Amino acid sequence: MEEFLQQLTNGLAVGGIYALIALGYTMVYGVLRLINFAHGDLFTLGAYLGFTLLASFGLSGVIGGLAGAGLLVLMALIFVGLVGVMLERAAYRPLRNSDRLSAVVSALGASIFLQNAMMLLYGARPQVYPVRLLPTASFMLMGVEIPFTRVLLFSSSLALMFLLFWFINRTRVGAAIRAVAIDQGAAKLVGIDVNRIISLVFLIGPALGGAAGVMVGLYYGQITHDMGLNYGLKAFIAAILGGIGNIPGAMLGGLLLGVIEALGTAYFAVGWKDAFAFLVLILILIVRPTGLLGERVADKI
Fold first, then answer.
1. Domains by residue range for the chain, with CATH
2. 3-class DSSP state of 38
3. Do residues 15 and 212 lie in contact, with contact meaning Cβ atoms separated by under 8 Å?
4. Judging by beta carbons within 10 Å of its beta carbon (0-12, 13-18, 19+), is residue 113 exposed, middle or buried?
């Protein structure tokens, strides 16, 4: 029971990260029917932004504790979101009326560019966050010692997810996003600026990914220039697991994948961690290709 609770909390914490990244994939796909392959690298960019603010700008001596961690996440939200908007203008908008293959190649090119740019700027070696802002304390749950950082990571991810869910389903702008996802032509006829809505989607999705990058850096303390590939693939699997284009599906898929990975590595072998993720992908494509919650148009973004 002790081992199960430890791995469950660990899986929920990591699953929250997967879910935040998966939301970026699902939002872009819901509006443009495009897989943004550069999304994982935007997540990495957020992690390196947090490292830069702490190490190069000297903020490690100015901010600290949970307030400092919150400030880093907020700054990553803003900066990476703006980079996402610029990426859409430069790499995706000129090809919007082209065939789907051109957009995929452009997305892959953007991914390679971002990954190599970070390698040139920071080097190929892993970077370590200079200070630990998250608390090291723990608490007892059913006789099991649970690190407070796991609860903080999970609750922060959950808060961002529910904030997005509320924004999409309870605001006028959210209604416009859902309208563009269903039919861009009809959305134009009722006066919705489709280009502005797509830019907003590319602001929100990468912003959540950048926040997840900072959370990973704060949680593990070490980042690499190519970690977006692994996290991006896992998040993509999570989006498919829940139902790509479906916001609640991305949330559910991320959390489930994190728990499955954690329990699988605990009770089988650590070396099979990635295999469990791809096994889940294969099974869901065979049994339910539309994902657990499906791709119901009304539930798309």
1. 2-126+153-299 (1.10.3470)
2. coil
3. no
4. middle
Query: 82 burial class (0-12, 13-18, 19+ CB within 10 angstroms)?
Result: middle
| CA angle (213, 214, 220) in 5-degree steps | 90
Of 55, 67, 28, 43, which is closest to residue 201 (Cα–Cα)? 28
Cβ(214)–Cβ(50) below 8 Å? yes
Task: Look at the block and give the residue holding tokens 């999409």.
Answer: 168
Spatial distance between the Cα atoms of 156 and 147, rounded to a whole number of angstroms: 15
User: What's the confidence (pLDDT) of residue 224?
Assistant: 93
Dig out the tokens for 77 from the structure. Answer: 């939200």
**How many CB atoms are closer than 10 A to CB 218?**
24
Confidence of residue 103 (pLDDT cuts 50, 70, 90): confident
- pLDDT tens per residue, range 214-229: 999 988 889 999 999 9
Q: At CA 224, angle to CA 86 and CA 61, rounded to 5?
A: 85
Give the C-alpha distances (Å, rounded to integers) separating 235 from 78, 132, 246, 263: 21, 26, 13, 18
Q: Is 218 within 8 Å of 13 (Cβ atoms)?
A: no
